[in-house]
Amino acid sequence: MDAISRLSLPLDTQALTGARAAKALGAQSGVVGTQGGSFGTALQSALKSVSNAQNESSALQKEVQLDNPSVSLEQTMVAMQKAQIGFQATVHVRNRMVQAYTDIMNMQV
Q1: Sign of the C-alpha dihedral, residues 74, 79, 82, 85?
Q2: pLDDT tens per residue across span 21-64
């Protein structure tokens, strides 16, 4: 990644570039270092993990709104942040994959 495109990234995503974003996304789903699995299954597992985190966050938000005494605001905020970080990492990995595809398609043979 060149310096100009790195400067255009927000500060919070600069730390999650390239392999770090994939590792962060995979670490959240527990698929880093799995043997025998394909990239597609690892990516699918990571996406399911992010989706589950978002669903959990939404459920906790609803419970807080309904004044459920067993659900704390802190627990809900942590779940929301986890879902947001996972989603941001997913979007960043997707953008990097699209950029890699575009670079390959623009190569002269």
Answers
A1: negative
A2: 455 545 554 545 556 678 889 999 999 999 999 999 999 999 99
pLDDT for 83-97, tens place per residue?
999 999 999 999 999
Nearest to 90 by CA among 33, 34, 27: 27
In this structure, the chain runs to a length of: 109
d(CA 37, CA 47): 15
Rounded Cα distance between 44 and 90, Å, is 11
- Contact, 90 vs 50, CB < 8 A? yes
Query: Could you tell me how far CA 5 lies from the centroid of its own chain?
Result: 20
